[in-house]
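The passage that follows is intended for readers who have already worked through the single-chain material. We present the inputs for a multi-component assembly, then the predicted structure in tokenized form, and finally a short commentary. You are encouraged to pause after the input and sketch how you expect the pieces to fit together before reading on.
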Amino acid sequence: MRDLILRNRFTLLLTTLAVYMAALVMEGAITGREARVVDFENPYFDLNLNNLEEYRQRRDEAADERDV
Amino acid sequence: MDKFSFFRFVALLQREVLEHRNLFIGAPLVLALLMLVSAIWVATQIDAAELAEGLQFISVLFNGLSPFDMAPFFMLAAVPFLLMLYVCSLIYLLSALYQDRKDMSVFFWQSMPVSNMQTILSKLVTIILVAPIFYVLVIFATYLFAMICITIMGISFDVDLVGIGWMFLAAVASLVLLYLSAVVSGLWLLPLMGWLLLFSAFAKKTPLLWAAGMFILLGFLEDFIFGTQYFANWVESRTANPNQYLIMEFSSIFQSVFNYETLFGILVGSILITGAVYMRRFVD
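Having made your guess, compare it with the prediction:
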């Protein structure tokens, strides 16, 4: 295992970042740190990254209506 | 730690200071000079009567009040120095291990009886404990010069500066707060320091791009794979509010160091620092 991690700089970087991320995510899940979704607030429209699919559907529907 | 190890570690700290004296001594000196010149220029633009009135007001403001209570006033004047310290720390940490490999001096240092762990610890101690000392000394000299100027102006305008001594004591007390703030913010930002050191040890070229790029990539990967943003939220929670690591009152020192967020940050930061220690084995 040790040889695998220390094989080259990339495996070491990957392992370090994996351990780091695991610690952060576990701590976040245990303590209930808010796992928010980025919201871009602006005065013109609301954009929620979770709603991209819905947004795409509406755009396609609007395009179909225009074609008709 | 035996006596020899202690002196060896002190020698490592001396090496860091000597090699980066521009960041630790030159930068705050230039900033102090700029601030003094600006202050003198502003003073010359103000009417003499108003200036005398202002001197009287400031002097009376501090008269008889506890220097520890009034110290936070001077913390505001020190904010540019703190920002300069952060910028210089960023530059220092990014180049600390990268520069060694670039100019191949890493071979010389690795031939010395000093482990990679000691080398990296010396860099962290330099930035957390030693560099703030130079900044505090420069600010002390600046305050001293400013007090002399105020006293000379007070004498020339025939103003009774009754509280100048109290003001100076408050300024000195603020330096203690400033040093403690720098140390606590160093501990608070240890994960960031570990991150920068890791990529400083890893990158063959442009460590800044690697550090920033991987940071963004990890955030996106977590969102795409797990649909969560614990990483981004954690980073935001540690950088958004400076009150978490700036000490404005002496009573809050213990609470600032020994709290869950700081201790967890030290734990997570030590993962990255350990990675940087092992990464230093890979020398091209």
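Commentary: Residues 9-31 of chain A form the longest helix (23 residues). The first strand of chain A starts at residue 39 and ends at 40. How closely did your sketch match?
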